[in-house]
Write a structure and sequence with these properties.
29% strand; 432 residues; 2 domains; four-stranded mixed β-sheet; Pellino_fam; phosphoprotein; single chain; seven-stranded antiparallel β-sheet; 8% helix
């Protein structure tokens, strides 16, 4: 999970590096469907670099001709260009900051991007380069700047520097001059952030805000790409907290601090919970076959030979069974893979309740858990299993959807949740 070494840099983490935290893309349940490779993965660890690469604002230039703009950019420094009109551009130059490390996130696979993020919905065709596939995620979406010294505060900024070390806000982009004189702006689809309170011990959802290019915090626009910025959120900060959510309009990232990760459950712990559950030998109350959750990690797709003992559940009542074929056949996906929602509605043989009938899958992305509790609840309608507190938290956390809507989703597969969004599982023990 370390940042990959690029040609000509020396930013590979040293022995026993300081870990600032991790960014985890919601919806992938531990790894990308095609596997994590290089900078394209479901989670990205931010370590203190061997050499600081942060930048900070320095000189400001007001330019009236294209030649002036080219002259400033030719200096090779990082800069942000605000085009006010055809005849006027404000360029803010940035100089080196040896007290911070900068990490860039976006859809582009160009070298300035440390963490390549593609749409959770899949944006584009299988195998297509994410930098050119249709997507609402910006090629240079945002940047995270971490202080190299304690408390290692990480701050989020909209937009990232491109291969020319420039951030360019065109004439139609939302931008303005602040009362103190410095220029600022927003990206087309915006970078939204939600900071929860008390995560993970007693988490309470915060308000969704928009982050500017210079890191100020604003209320949301009327629509995602509206031309008018929201009201400045006085006293609020772009500093990420443990559990902060960053939405890039196509993918939502969860930030876990280094300290928070030390308290979070690990994949080994989740595996132990799986083994403990299987050791109790839950049975199908009708077929009397012993059920077992498959080992982690596993395929994202249905594998009949490996999943013969897979638990299934009637989501309305929560009764857990083995897979059976009586009742109505699915109208859509006959054998849903992980994260796919079946349209099957059947009558539970135990209580006669009619409702969706789906396979159960253990949630195996530890970062989204708010505790290390037993896997007792499942999200509705996808069937991903986790602890009760984790299920309740995410079912009560609306994520951005579309241009101005919000809805809770399963953090393991991004399926939209129904109300209340989860069900308590009722297992049948072995009959002695």
């Amino acid at each position: 999970m370390n940042s990959p070494k690029k040609d000509g840099d020396d930013d590979v983490p040293v022995k026993d590096p300081v870990k600032y935290g991790e960014l985890v893309i919601l919806g992938y349940n531990g790894s990308l469907p095609t596997g994590d490779r290089g900078r394209r993965k479901s989670r990205f660890a931010l370590y203190r670099r061997a050499k600081a690469n942060g930048v900070k604002p320095s000189a400001v230039h007001i330019l009236n001709t294209p030649q002036d703009t080219k002259a400033v950019h030719s200096r090779g420094q990082h800069s942000i260009s605000f085009t006010l009109s055809r005849n006027q551009t404000v360029v803010v130059e940035y100089c080196h900051d040896n007290s911070t490390d900068m990490f860039q996130i976006g859809r582009s696979t160009e070298s300035p991007i440390d963490f390549v993020v593609t749409d959770t919905s899949g944006g584009g065709k299988e195998g297509e380069d994410p930098s050119i596939a249709p997507s609402t995620i910006s090629r240079f979406a945002c940047r995270v700047v971490c202080e190299r010294n304690p408390p290692y505060t990480a701050r989020i900024y909209a937009a990232g520097f491109d291969s020319s070390k420039n951030i360019f806000l065109g004439e139609k982009a939302t931008k303005w001059k602040n009362p103190d004189g410095h220029m600022d702006g927003l990206t087309t689809n915006g970078v939204l952030v939600m900071h929860p309170e008390g995560f993970p011990e007693d988490p309470k959802q915060g308000l969704w805000r928009e982050i500017s290019v210079c890191g100020d915090v604003y209320a949301l626009r009327e629509t995602r790409s509206g031309p008018t910025r929201g009201k400045l959120a006085e006293g609020e900060s772009s500093a990420l907290r443990d559990g902060s959510l960053v939405d890039l309009c196509g993918a939502t990232l969860l930030w876990r601090t280094g300290e928070g990760l030390m308290r979070a459950p690990t994949l080994r712990h989740l595996e132990a919970l799986r083994q403990e559950l299987n050791a109790s030998r839950p049975q199908c109350p009708v077929g009397l076959s012993t059920l077992a959750f498959p080992s982690l990690p596993r395929s994202h797709r249905w594998e009949p030979n490996l999943e013969e003992r897979q638990p299934w559940v009637y989501l309305t009542c929560g009764h857990v069974h083995g897979r059976h074929d009586w009742g109505q056949r699915p109208e859509g996906v006959e054998m849903p893979g992980e994260g796919e929602v079946s349209t099957t509605r059947r009558e539970c043989p135990l209580c006669r309740t009619v409702g969706p009938y789906v396979a159960l899958w253990l949630g195996c992305e530890p970062a989204v858990y708010v505790d290390a509790g037993a896997p007792t609840h499942a999200f509705v309608p996808c069937g991903h299993v986790c602890s009760e507190r984790t299920a309740r938290y995410w079912a009560e956390t609306p994520l951005p959807h579309g241009t101005h809507a919000f809805r809770p989703v399963c953090p393991f597969c991004s399926s939209a949740l129904s109300t209340p969004g989860w069900t308590r599982l009722i297992f049948q023990g072995p009959i002695d």
